[in-house]
Write the structure tokens for this entry.
Amino acid sequence: MRWRLFSFAVALASFSTIGLELELTRIFSVTMYYHFAYMVISIAMLGLSVSGVSIYLFPRLFPERRAPVIAAVFMLLFAGTCLWALKAALESPISLHNWQANLGKLTSLYATAGLTLLSSGFAISLAIATARERIGQVYAFDLVGAALGCVFVIPALSTFGGPGAIVLNAAVAACSALLFALSAGDTAPRSARFGVAAVAGSLAVVLLFAATGEEKQKRFGAARNPDKFLGGRSVEFEKWNSFSQITVAQGMADYKWIFIDADAATRIWSAGAAKNNWAQTRRFGEIRTAALVYAVRHDRPALIIGPGGGTDVISALMNGVPKVVGVEVNPIIVNDIMKGKYGEYSGHLYRDPRVHVVVDEGRSFIRRSGEAYGSIQATLVDTWASSSSGAFTLSENNIYTAEAFEEFLGHLAPGGIVCVTRWYDAGRPKEFLRLLALGREALERRGVAPADVYKHFFLATDRERRGTLLLNRDPFTAADVQALADRAATDRLQILYAPSKPAGSLAAPDAGRNTVEEDAFLAGFIRAPSASDFLAKLNYDATATTDDKPFFFYNLFKAEFFSLLGRFRSLEINNLGVAILLLLLVISSALTMLFVVLPLLVFERKSLASDRRAKLRVVGYFLALGGGFILVEMGFMQTFVLFLGHPIYALAVILASLLGASGTGSAISAWGTRRFGLAGYVRRAVALLAVVLVLYALLLTPLFHLLLGLPLPVRIAIAALLVAVPGLLMGALLPSGVRVANSFGPGTVSWGWGLNGAASVVGSIAAMALSMNFGFRMALLVGIAVYVAGTALLPAEKPATSS
């Protein structure tokens, strides 16, 4: 056995496995929605669990002397099924309407991705089982490979696109198969190892060539979803990066559409539209509604979060704003589209000397900015897309939290206004009410008395489905109200709420009706003596979202969460993603029982007959480790999304740091056991872990709030360091359990391995549900409790003399 080649093969196997997980989340974000990231993680954990249990239960099928060649075959299978999984992902978009079709598509996606990740799971599990005295070296390469795979995904997606990155990933898997085959040495027949190596090498070359041209040739198809806004439009431009797919398609004669993940859209206006001071842009009601703020605040710099194709920038310039600062999170929109291919088409809008557009995340930029703005504007940012924060109903967006609104108000000049435009449903304004709740919470945190908050609000709608909130840092003056009312009349807008009744004629010029048609429900909330008392009477949750629980679109009460499974046909779109998440929880649980727990019951039940009490405690310890680890991991992923700005960064940084630190922790566990004894070492590690996680649960949110203004590379370094500390301690616990389980026999090890994986499979989705209903902090606290419970369960090693 050539152990160095074998170790590098393991590293490439882990590299390609974690790469596929992250790349599939990008594809699913376009063809489905971003919360399917949790499905991929769940599938990966299931693959490792099933493969590990199978190797323990059927050792004759995996002879150690042939392990390298068998692992090579599994990685070849992984490379081939990567392409199958890619094809299935592109051809199985989730519909918002046809549930029967969705169930079939989900099954297909789970099966293809599951078989793919099961293949690499077998290769990695077999390598670890074979390592024996070399386990330290092999396990270290496994974790380092996975960590590098997390990081490599970011440039791979930007360079090769979503589908191309998966093809490249398959090429890496083929390279892993090549190294596995060559590492066999004399343990396998020459014809077998060189035959497999030749196939693997040839496949790697072909796949590498295919990956370089996939973005243009689209051999596997394009990432689309007919139900999304892009629909069947002809695409003029397409480019991917680590957190989005950006496309451009024709709109009308004077504008084109930019689409983010095939859904969220923003217009690019043609240079011809500027000849008449962009007058024709105002034919759309949502543009006039969003521009209402400039009727009263146009003499100081305006900050626009998410300017996209520049519609809000144009509105600001039309109204004489002297300086427009745009903070756009997506570099493709700014550099490749507005300053690149479509720069001339747009009249070089983003090169106008009055316009300064930066690529950054909104809150991070505002935190660093020392300027006082006349207005801060966000128009339909992150609607139905997964650009900067997630998407759809499980969207985590750090600009729609009470802390964010408080920050915005703090960076306004005297009399400055926060202007936020979102969807408004007059019959059931759930989303818009939550927006008002954010504004009111931020005002009260800044010391505005509940009896005075009504002076700070002004609401208007385009009479279609968009509404705009104007939130003044200081009370609106009578002159402000009058100016806004006059502009509303001119622009045919409806005033939903004003702090005082404007004077004069307010008849809309071409509508013959008064612009003041107050929404009594929303006005009632603004004027209510207590926001919490008002919201408590509703049959949905519209309380202000926070950095700890930032799910702006999620409006179910905790008790309603599981009831969604029984009412798929009557779901509102905003709750559809939650229902899919529950479906995934059911599917994952069923598959775990079928392929992990049931085989153990059938083939290894007798192994628990003797020393039953002690062995059940060992199994319980492994169950707790799996559940605790995934709760902390998923809690970190979601918490750090708010700090790092993008889910892909959170996934990459958290996974890479946890894997690397856990590997180091596993390596030092032998030293700790010698120093303190096995039980003493575990107790110390868990006690220190509990202290660290409790501190994190209490301090991470305010710490992130303090550090949010730092540049992204610095935030990534801080995040990696913060995650590495608990990762060291968590990684130290599994080897201790293996030592105890080994003392009770291999059957106990197989039970421990299987149930540890089972807890991870179900826990990956359960952690998401826990965070949605109780917050990220609670997920960490529950993770601590599970770890502590596991420590109490772990028995002492069985004395060798009694075995």
User: Anything to note?
Assistant: Residues 383-396, 505-513 have pLDDT under 50 and may be disordered. Residues 429 and 521 are 9 Å apart (CA to CA). The radius of gyration is 28 Å. The first strand starts at residue 235 and ends at 241.
